[in-house]
Design a protein that fits this description.
about 850 residues; Beta-Lactamase; 5 domains; 8-stranded mixed barrel; 32 strands
Length: about 850
């Protein structure tokens, strides 16, 4: 298409008939050879037809131009790519440029802000047969801008797609909107526009002033949140959100005129009355409103002395008051009198002051003086006593009337906040109380202890840090409900033991704290510790089961053991830990030596975590022999730790640390693999298969797929299951879970020997022992060392031997150090033993030398 514009071609269709006539005349001339006269006649006809066609073309062009230029809005003809092909006179005037400077140029000349792909949505709409409408800002020749609304439609000219675009100047509409905004900002009536969900779209300054909100829509929206307002009708009856006049207008589509409603704003304690008219707003083509205008006036002053005002205040539990200083008269609404609850109505400010607490009375007197002298309003929370003796809390607001420079009248509101204050007190108590036991919690005792230690006259205090021995066992065995019962019973026992001589708190889990004063009785902490220890001498009962749960107690004194609460508690914890480690069921006083030992333990735990990676462990093997002839039956693998700083350490030093830190799981797997590797090495050396017993931690048992690991290690070294014996503590006996039984069954299927270690020390749960597929028991060294001679130990040994025989289990006695012990045990029927009488833990080479080939 030519860039000259389509003015001369647009009317081509109008003179199509003239062209047809001219062509018909030429056809006639060619149909037969003409004579000279006929030829002249024919040429005249052709000339006449062509002239008529040209005249028709000019007429059509004039008609197009007249119509094109008659449109009052700028009209542009654009090519498919956005080049201006034509522009009417209104466009030339609007854009302030000559026509020739625009035609042939891209549309971006008139609107430089258009994006590169601005024609894409236009053509998408036109291809759907729709008109495309958009608001943009066009630019004049002098660089000034003006807003337009552009309507675009498509048409086809000479096989090419074109666009006709009509731009309507919006400047006048913007001016009208500016005048509307000016009107909204200047009138004294509040105007709020709500959407269909009663959300605030806009509000004028008067609305902000009447409702008492900052001058921005967001704040007003927050103030109109339903939870913050109580809305009542003119009779004081509460209105739901659906009954608000704006909601009714929106729902019915009708104007709701001059409705009186009362609004009480809870957060600020303010009551206002308004007269509101609500007008629905219908969108284009809609038969139901999608917005509503709410217009309202403040009529609070008119309602001040009305009984309806009292009704609304009663619903909101808020009353009004006014003090006439000249008449020395106090006016109270009925609701205010009800809130204050005095037997006789109060008619003077002095009477109101008398029913307040002394401190609050002084606060109110000073606030009233500030209103009189400085015109300063006040807001106070005051506590007093009603005529029936019950306490009340009120929120009292007061100010002088505007323009009253002498504050002759001071008025305000009084709101009943008793329920809120009681709830706050309940929350304060709950925040300081352990919900399970009902005693003080960690935060409360820390605050109390800090207050004591900060007071020079009360800083001589002691802390007893109490930990329940074997609590976790009960909790794991019987479940959390039993654990909770145990904690409640333990709380009762400790509280009974200390009486009124100490402050008891639950510090966390199964740990308790007792704070006591040491100013008058220096030995009071020890006496309380003894009393607590005695209080736990009776076992705890859970149904038919009994559990002996005792206490380990650490004691620390201020100021010598700590000047800050955390330091004092930490040192008491160190003493408790030492007691638990050594004996349990007792108490220990903190000393600097204990702190050093604690430091040493931390050093052990720190180095223990890296010991496996640094290849610091090795195994020794203690023979298990026949008590009859001393023949070597098997061996037990015992772990040793050699650290460059700490030297050689035995398991009794570091295993408990490994259990508490969780490192025992990795260490246990290493022991299992190393023992199997050594068995393989002995077999390759021609010494045969030696069965080696390996201790398995309870944490290793419950935390890993033990059977899978054992299978992998046996396969790795090509060993039968009979080469391995796994020793478990009695704790696994109480794990009657399906997973536990399945793991034992899988191990037994492999041929692995299963033994319960240190039998008799712990739970001795015979009921569980019957159900586990084990092979044998190990008699604890704790009882072996007392025989012969100690009747109690002898009785335990006899009992364990009887249990083993009755259940068809093997029995190994450990810790045999003397010949009398060997003879006593052999006489009981024990066939296998181990201990220093036969050999200590031996290095692999030394152990091998004691083996016979093909053992």
């Amino acid at each position: 298409m030519s860039r000259r514009g389509p003015r001369r071609d647009v009317a081509a269709g109008d003179h199509l008939t003239a062209h047809v006539h001219a062509l018909a005349a030429m056809d006639r001339a060619l149909a037969s050879p003409p004579g000279e006269a006929d030829l002249r006649t024919l040429l005249r006809e052709v000339q006449q037809a062509l002239q008529e066609a040209m005249d028709d073309r000019q007429l059509a062009l004039r008609r197009y131009t007249a119509l094109f230029d008659a449109v009052p809005d700028p009209v542009s003809i654009l090519s498919e790519s956005g080049v201006v092909l034509d522009l009417n006179k209104a466009g030339v005037r609007a854009y302030g440029r000559p026509r020739e400077d625009i035609v042939g140029q891209p549309i971006e000349l008139l609107n430089p802000d258009l994006p590169n792909d601005h024609l894409d949505p236009v053509w998408e709409a036109l291809h759907r047969g729709e008109t495309y409408v958009i608001e943009v800002t066009n630019m004049r020749g002098d660089g000034s801008r003006f807003p337009v609304e552009v309507h675009s439609a498509g048409f086809e000219h000479q096989g090419e797609h074109c666009i006709v675009a009509v731009a309507r100047d919006l400047s006048s509409r913007w001016q009208a909107e500016s005048r509307y905004r000016l009107l909204m900002e200047s009138i004294d009536k509040g105007v709020v526009l709500f959407d269909s969900h009663l959300r605030v779209v806009s509000a004028n300054p008067a609305a902000h002033r009447i409702l008492g909100t900052p001058g921005n829509g967001g704040s007003l929206q927050a103030m109109l949140a339903p939870d913050d307002w109580i809305c009542v009708d003119e009779h004081g009856h509460p209105l739901t959100r659906e009954q608000w006049p704006a909601a009714v207008s929106l729902r019915t589509g009708r104007i709701i005129r001059s409705t009186i409603v009362g609004l009480y704003h809870r957060p600020r304690g303010r009551m206002i009355w308004i007269s509101t008219t609500n007008v629905p707003v219908f969108g284009t083509g809609r038969d139901c409103p999608d917005h509503v205008f709410g217009m309202f006036s403040d009529i609070t002053e008119l309602k001040r002395t009305n009984a309806l005002f009292d009704r609304a205040q009663s619903l909101a539990h808020i009353g009004g008051w006014e003090w006439d200083r000249g008449l020395q008269r106090l006016y109270l609404t009925d609701e205010a009198n009800r809130i204050l609850g005095q037997e006789l109505p109060l008619h003077d400010m002095a009477h109101l002051l008398e029913c307040l607490r002394v401190d609050d009375r002084s606060q109110l007197q000073q606030a009233l003086l500030d209103v009189i002298d400085k015109q300063v309003p006040f807001e106070l929370e005051l506590q007093g006593q009603r005529g029936d003796g019950h306490s009340f809390w009120v929120r009292m607001i007061g100010e002088a009337e505007a323009g009253d420079v002498d504050a002759a009248r001071i008025a305000g509101t009084v709101q009943d906040i008793t329920a809120r204050k009681q709830a706050e007190e309940t929350l304060r108590i709950q925040a300081r109380t352990d919900p399970l036991t009902g005693i003080m919690n960690r935060d409360a005792v820390l605050n109390d202890l800090a207050a004591r230690m900060a007071n020079p006259t009360h800083c001589r205090v002691a802390v007893l840090y109490i930990d329940l021995d074997r609590f976790k066992t009960v909790n794991d065995l019987l479940g959390h409900n039993a654990g909770d019962e145990l904690l409640i019973d333990a709380t009762r026992r400790i509280a009974t033991a200390i009486g009124t001589e100490g402050l008891l708190a639950r510090f966390g889990g199964d740990e308790f704290l007792v704070v006591c004063d040491t100013r008058d009785q220096a030995d009071q902490p020890e006496r309380l510790a003894e009393a607590i220890t005695r209080g736990f001498s009776t076992p705890f009962r859970f149904g038919s089961d009994e559990f002996a749960v005792t206490t380990s107690i650490g004691i620390a004194r201020a100021p010598q053991d700590g000047l800050r609460p955390q330091q004092l508690i930490q040192n008491a914890d160190i003493a408790m830990y030492d007691c638990k480690r050594r004996t349990r069921n007792g108490w220990q006083v903190f000393s600097p030596e204990l702190a050093q030992r604690q430091h040493d333990r931390l050093q052990i735990e720190s180095r223990l975590h890296r010991a496996l990676d640094d290849d610091e462990f090795h195994l020794v093997y203690q023979p298990q022999v026949s008590l009859h002839d001393g023949r070597m039956i098997a061996a037990e693998a015992l772990i040793r730790w050699r650290n460059s700083q700490l030297g050689e350490l035995r398991p009794d030093i570091f295993i408990a640390h490994a259990e508490s830190t969780g490192d025992i799981v990795r260490i246990g797997l290493w022991v299992l693999r190393e023992a199997c590797r050594q068995i393989r090495q002995w077999q390759d050396a021609g010494l045969g298969i030696v069965r080696v017993a390996v201790n398995v931690s309870y944490r290793q048992f419950v935390g890993e797929d033990l059977a899978r690991h054992v299978r992998q290690v046996l396969d790795e070294f090509g060993l039968p299951g009979s080469a391995l014996e796994l020793e478990f503590t009695e704790r696994v006996l109480i794990e009657d879970a399906p997973d536990t039984l399945q793991t034992f069954a899988r191990l037994r299927e492999m041929g692995v020997q299963l033994t319960i270690d240190d039998f008799g020390e712990g739970y001795s749960a015979l009921n569980y022992l019957r159900r586990l597929p084990i092979h044998g028991l190990k008699l604890s060294q704790l009882f072996v060392e007392g025989v012969p001679g100690n009747r109690s130990d002898e009785a335990v040994c006899e009992a364990v031997c009887g249990i083993a025989r009755s259940l068809g289990l093997g029995l190994v006695a450990e810790g045999i150090e003397s010949e009398p012990q060997r003879r006593f045990l052999q006489a009981l029927g024990v066939t296998v033993g181990q201990g220093f009488l036969f050999a200590p833990g031996l290095a692999p080479d030394e152990f091998a030398r004691r083996l016979t080939p093909r053992h």
